[in-house]
Amino acid sequence: MSHTASLTLDGTSFELPVVVGSEDEKAIDITKLRDQTEYITLDSGFKNSGATKSAITFLDGEQGILRYRGYPIEQLAAKSSFIEVAYLLIYGALPTLDQLNTFSNAITRHTLIHEDMKRFYEAYPAKAHPMGVVASITCSLSTFYPDSMAPNPTWEQVDLTIIRLIAKFSTIAAWAYKNSVGHPAMYPKNNLNYVENFMHMMFAMPTEDYEVDPVIANALDKLLILHADHEQNCSTSTVRMVGSSQANLYASTSAGICALWGPLHGGANQAVIEMLEEIQNDGGNVKKFIDKAKDKNDNFRLMGFGHRVYKNFDPRASIIKTACDQMLNKLGIKDPMLDIAKQLEEAALNDSYFVERKLYPNVDFYSGIIYRAMGIPTDMFTVMFALGRLPGWIAQWKEMIENKEPISRPRQIYTGATMREYVNIADR
Ligand code: CMC
Q1: Residue nearest to atom 46 of ligand 1 (CA)
Q2: Looking at domain 57-404, which CATH architecture does it have?
Q3: Residue 359: burial class (beta carbons within 10 Å; 0-12, 13-18, 19+)
């Protein structure tokens, strides 16, 4: 097979290297094109551009395949734990029992956040969206741990920053919720595992005993695994891009949280429930909303449907749908939103508009229904996504540093005014 591609521009031919990945993915390397010609390549929204070579996550959108470090998502969701998956993503291999215990214990020991940071929460308005709170407090960690800001940190420093970030993020997230409902912050408990501890900080009250429900803890652990990485998506690309300027891990992650917030990305899980509520309040006419989504004069989109990469099915959505049914059954919960969601899914899957455009339910379509059943409020859903995605962001940031990748700096085609003379204000 040829390992070059040829490109003819204005009658001159250029040979461009072809890069082949371990799963036979192919790319034309245009890095040197600029040295030889004055052309750049244009690909708005990076729909067909590779930003990096990465050994972390493999995704085949046509076949609905997702693997972390080679391991199928289905096996990890069924057999692993979120903390084990975090280790796998960040360090590249499944941990031994000793490695897992060391990693997990270190995270447990760093869950407290500096007492001064507690005061930050008091300053936010009561109705502050928790994503805004979580993003800014995550960035503020850099001010408490200035060693994280060294542009060329030692690997020991990087490892400590990683542990601190994973550990403190769950506390930061849970306290954002407590603050939003005016409840006292609950301190972490070291006898609980990561997910149990998060649930304790979210749901326990100083006034009464709280026991973690194992059905909910297992479902949450699985959800976090499913969200843990998704190669070069919007928020991950943001983390890598911000990190490429040698910004520290806390700042880079905070930027990723902001990118995740939007309703076309992680914010879709909140938007899905709001859409289902809107359909319910409107009388449950699913067809009306399908028609709205198809109407090009209407901005309404079916939230939780469609994906930039998956054009067959989203394997995470399939696992979540089953987990959702199982959890609601085990807890004996009947949620009318689930019925509307199923009607909507069926109607869309049988509608040529959605079939032709290969629009299937994505990870966010059913996750909100599970979060609701867990007692998590709607505006915390995207924070839950961030909690899950954190190890992926860290792994991708670390890989970018290890690969010594250059600062990200795209080019553009300028379409503005050509040179013109300044006009004094009196003459305009
Ligand atoms: N409802 C109705 N039409 C849609 C939808 C939708 N949810 N998604 C895409 N389309 C149409 C779109 O109008 C376009 O139609 P046409 O070809 O006639 O102009 C066509 O499908 C292709 O859409 P696109 O916007 O060019 O596709 P994209 O790859 O740029 O966008 C997406 C992908 C996920 C942003 C989009 O499908 C969407 O807005 N979905 C709803 C939001 C959502 O659920 N986001 C969560 C994604 S999964 C979680 C994550 O990893 O972020």
Answers
A1: 265
A2: Orthogonal Bundle (1.10)
A3: buried
First-to-last CA distance in the chain? 63
Q: Where are the domains of the chain?
A: 4-50, 57-404
pLDDT in tens, 217-267: 999 999 999 999 999 999 999 999 999 999 999 999 999 999 999 999 999
With a 6 A CB cut-off, is 266 part of the ligand 1 pocket?
Answer: yes
Beta carbon of 357 within 6 Å of any ligand 1 atom: yes
Ligand 1 in reach of 362 Cβ (< 6 A):
yes
Indicate the top mutation candidate among 307, 351, 381, 389 to test ligand 1's pocket, ranked by most ligand atoms within 8 A of CB. 307
CA–CA separation, 360 vs 380, rounded Å?
Answer: 24
Indicate the residue type of 275. M
* pTM attached to this predicted model: 0.95
In whole angstroms, give the CA distance from residue 98 to residue 102.
Answer: 6
Residues annotated as catalytic are 307, 364
CA proximity to 398, closest of 161, 121, 138, 73? 161
For ligand 1, atom 8, which residue shows the shortest CA distance?
306
Burial class (CB in 10 A: 0-12, 13-18, 19+), 256: buried
Residues sharing a CB contact under 8 Å with residue 171, sequence separation 6 or more, in sequence order: 111, 112, 113, 188, 201
**Domain 4-50: CATH class, spelled out:** mainly beta
Distance from the alpha carbon of residue 398 to the mean position of ligand 1, in angstroms: 30
